[in-house]
Design a protein that fits this description.
This protein is of the alpha/beta class and 538 residues long. The protein has three domains: 168 residues, Thiamin diphosphate (ThDP)-binding fold, Pyr/PP domains (Rossmann fold, 3-Layer(aba) Sandwich), CATH 3.40.50.970; 146 residues, 3-Layer(aba) Sandwich (Rossmann fold); 177 residues, Rossmann fold (3-Layer(aba) Sandwich). Helix content is 40%, strand content 16%. The protein has 22 helices and 19 strands. A six-stranded parallel β-sheet has the order 3-2-4-5-7-6, sandwiched between helices. Strands 15-14-16-17-19-18 form a six-stranded parallel β-sheet, with helices on both faces. Strands 10-9-11-12-13 form a five-stranded parallel β-sheet, with helices on both faces. Helix 1 crosses helix 2, helix 9 packs across helix 13 and helix 11 packs parallel to helix 13. The longest helix is centred in the middle third of the chain and has 22 residues. The termini are far apart.
Length: 538
C-alpha cells in the first residue's frame, strides 16, 4: 500500500527502534509528524532547534542507541549546526532529519530555500537529499544504521517538501548483520608491555563507552592491578568507589607510568597534546579509528580495532601472573588521599555567597548511585568534573571537546525521556543558562522532572578571572549579579528555589528531587573564587 513520505520516514524510524523524535515545529515537517503519530513515536517539541539536536544526543548518550532530531528547512537546520558539530566531536550516534524547500521549485526562491548539504557534510558521516519518494525508507534506514555503526557519529537526511508529501510503497530494508569483531593487530606487543609493566596506567574515555567495553576494561584492570583514570563518557565505566578507580592522582599516575594504555581518548588538549604522560612512558593507544592527531605525541603501539575483543585479547595475552603493581597502587592511593584531604577546606567552606565546591558536597549526598548528571557551564561545571563521582556508565554528560554551551538542557531532556524514573541533575552556570534557559518551558510542558542546580556568580568565571590576571581588568565577562533565575523558571511552569546560605542548600536539593517536578535551585556563589585552570587550550 502506498503511503506518503512522512509515514515512510516514521516506518524507517520504528524499524530501528526509535521511540522519540525531538523537534521544533515547522511546516516542512508536518508529514513526518503525521507519520510519527501513526507509528506511535513520541514527539518532544523544544524551544530552539539546537536543543532538539542536543536532546537527540542526550538520549543517545543515555541509551547508546541512535537519537533522532527533525529540523525544519533553512534556519531550522542552521540553528542545529553547533549541536551537530558537538555530536561529531563526541562520536554520538544521532540522525538529523531536515525539511527542505520543494524540489519542483528549486532555484525559484521558495521560503527557506537553501542547500543544506555543503555546510552539514563536513560534520556528519553522511548527508543526503531524498529526491525520489520510493527511496525515503531505504535512505532513512541507512542513515540510522550508519550513525550507529562503529565509529558512531551523526548523519543527516533532508526531504524536499513536495517529495515527502508524495506517496510511495513502503520499502524498509532489514538492518545489516554485524560481523564478528576481531582484536586489533599488534595486540601481542601491547600485551607484553602491560605484562612487564610495574607502573601501568589506563586512561579511558568516550570511545570506551561507545564500544560497550566497560566490563572488558574492568577485567583487564583487575587481572593486572592497573589504576584507571576516566574522562568524558568513560566516567562511570569503572565505578568511582572501585579500588582501582583514581581521579585526584591522575597527574602523578600518567606522568609516572612506565606503560599507559589509552582507550578511546584522543591525544588532544585534555591530555596536554600528549604532554600529560611522562617522557619515558610507553603509550599503547586503542581506538576504533587510526590516530586523527598526527601532530601530537605518537603512540608506541597503535591498536585500531574492536574495543571489547582487543581488551579481552590484552588480558589473555598478558598471562595469569600475580600483579606486580602493589607498590605503585599504594603510591597513587597516598597521592589520592592527600589531595582529597586538601579539598576538605573548600568542601566545608561556610561562606556566603557559597564557595561553588560547597554545592558539590551537598549534592553528592542527595544523588542516587544511578543519577544522570549533565554539566553545562564554565567554572561551576569545571568544579563538578572534579567533585561529582560517577558509578555507572552513561551517568555523566557534558558538551565534550567542542565545548558548546547550551548543550545541557537538551541533553538533560533526552536523558530524562530515556530514564523517567531516574534522577537527572542539570548543572548550570548562570552564563550557560542564557543559551537554553527557555527549555525549562519544554520540561514543564512534557512533565520532565529535571532538577537544575545553578552556580550563580554573576560573571563568566572562566573568562573574567584570566582577563584580570592578564590585563588587570575584565570586559565582556560580567553578568547581572543575583539574577532571580528561580523566579524566571517559575514563570515557565517550573519550581524555583533560591539559596543564599550553606545551610539552605541541602534542604533545597532534597525538596527539588522529591517533588518530581522540573526545578531550578538557584545558588548564589562567590564571584571572587577563581577556578584553578590548568588545561592548555592551544
Amino acid at each position: 500500500m502506498a503511503e506518503h513520505g512522512g509515514r515512510l520516514v516514521a516506518k524507517a524510524l520504528k524499524s530501528r527502534g526509535v521511540e522519540n523524535l525531538f523537534t521544533l515545529s515547522g511546516g516542512h515537517l508536518f508529514s513526518i509528524y503525521d507519520g510519527c503519530r501513526e507509528e506511535g513515536i513520541s514527539l518532544v517539541d523544544v524551544r530552539h532547534e539546537q536543543t532538539a539536536v542536543f536532546a537527540a544526543e542526550g538520549i543517545a548518550k543515555a541509551t547508546r542507541g541512535v537519537g533522532v532530531a527533525a529540523l525544519t528547512a533553512g534556519p531550522g537546520v542552521t540553528n542545529g549546526i553547533s549541536a551537530i558539530a558537538g555530536a561529531q566531536a563526541n562520536c554520538s550516534p544521532i540522525c538529523v532529519l531536515g525539511g527542505r524547500a520543494p524540489e519542483m521549485r528549486w532555484g525559484s526562491g521558495s521560503l527557506q530555500e537553501i542547500d543544506h548539504l555543503p555546510f552539514v557534510s563536513p560534520l556528519v558521516k553522511s548527508a543526503e537529499t531524498v529526491k525520489d519518494p520510493a527511496q525515503i525508507g531505504p535512505i532513512t534506514a541507512a542513515a540510522l544504521d550508519l550513525a550507529a555503526a562503529i565509529p558512531s557519529g551523526p548523519t543527516f537526511v533532508d526531504y524536499p517538501l513536495d517529495v515527502v508529501f508524495t506517496e510511495a510503497e513502503a520499502d524498509i530494508p532489514l538492518p545489516l548483520q554485524i560481523e564478528q569483531a576481531e582484536p586489533a593487530a599488534g595486540v601481542e606487543e601491547a600485551a607484553a608491555l602491560l605484562s612487564a609493566a610495574e607502573r601501568p596506567a589506563i586512561m579511558a574515555g568516550t570511545g570506551l563507552y561507545w564500544g560497550r567495553a566497560e566490563e572488558e576494561l574492568r577485567a583487564l584492570a583487575e587481572a593486572l592491578g592497573i589504576p584507571v583514570f576516566l574522562n568524558g563518557l568513560g566516567r562511570g565505566c569503572l565505578p568511582a568507589d572501585h579500588e582501582l578507580a583514581f581521579s585526584r592522582a591522575r597527574g602523578a599516575g600518567l606522568q609516572g607510568a612506565d606503560v599507559a594504555l589509552v582507550v578511546g581518548v584522543p591525544m588532544d588538549f585534555r591530555l596536554g597534546f600528549g604532554g600529560s604522560f611522562g617522557e619515558e612512558t610507553k603509550i599503547v593507544r586503542l581506538d576504533v579509528v587510526p590516530n586523527q592527531l598526527p601532530r601530537n605525541r605518537a603512540p608506541d603501539v597503535d591498536l585500531v580495532g574492536d574495543m571489547r575483543a582487543t581488551l579481552t585479547a590484552l588480558r589473555e595475552g598478558a598471562g595469569a601472573e600475580a600483579p606486580r603493581t602493589a607498590a605503585w597502587l599504594e603510591q597513587l592511593r597516598a597521592v589520592e588521599e592527600e589531595k582529597r584531604a586538601a579539598e576538605r577546606a573548600e568542601l566545608d567552606d561556610g561562606r556566603s555567597p557559597l564557595h561553588p565546591v560547597r554545592v558539590y558536597r551537598e549534592l553528592n549526598e542527595v544523588l542516587d548511585r544511578d543519577a544522570i548528571v549533565v554539566g553545562d557551564g564554565g567554572d561551576f561545571v569545571s568544579y563538578a568534573g572534579r567533585y561529582i563521582e560517577t558509578f555507572e556508565p552513561g551517568c555523566w554528560m557534558d558538551p565534550g571537546p567542542f565545548g558548546c554551551l547550551g548543550a545541557g538542557p537538551g541533553q538533560a531532556i533526552g536523558a530524562k525521556v530515556a530514564h523517567p524514573d531516574r534522577q537527572v541533575c542539570l548543572l548550570l552556570g548562570d552564563g550557560a543558562f542564557g543559551f537554553a534557559g527557555m527549555e525549562f518551558d519544554t520540561m514543564s510542558r512534557h512533565g520532565l522532572g529535571v532538577v537544575g542546580v545553578m552556580g550563580n556568580n554573576g560573571i563568566w568565571g572562566l573568562e573574567h578571572h584570566p582577563m584580570k590576571f592578564l590585563y588587570g581588568y575584565s570586559v565582556a565577562a560580567e553578568l547581572r549579579p543575583e539574577t532571580r533565575y528561580d523566579e524566571l523558571v517559575e514563570a515557565l511552569g517550573c519550581d524555583g528555589i533560591l539559596v543564599r546560605e550553606p545551610g539552605e542548600l541541602k534542604p533545597a536539593l532534597e525538596r527539588a528531587f522529591a517533588s518530581g517536578r522540573p526545578t531550578l535551585v538557584n545558588v548564589l556563589t562567590d564571584p571572587e573564587v577563581a577556578y584553578p585552570r590548568k588545561s592548555n587550550l592551544a
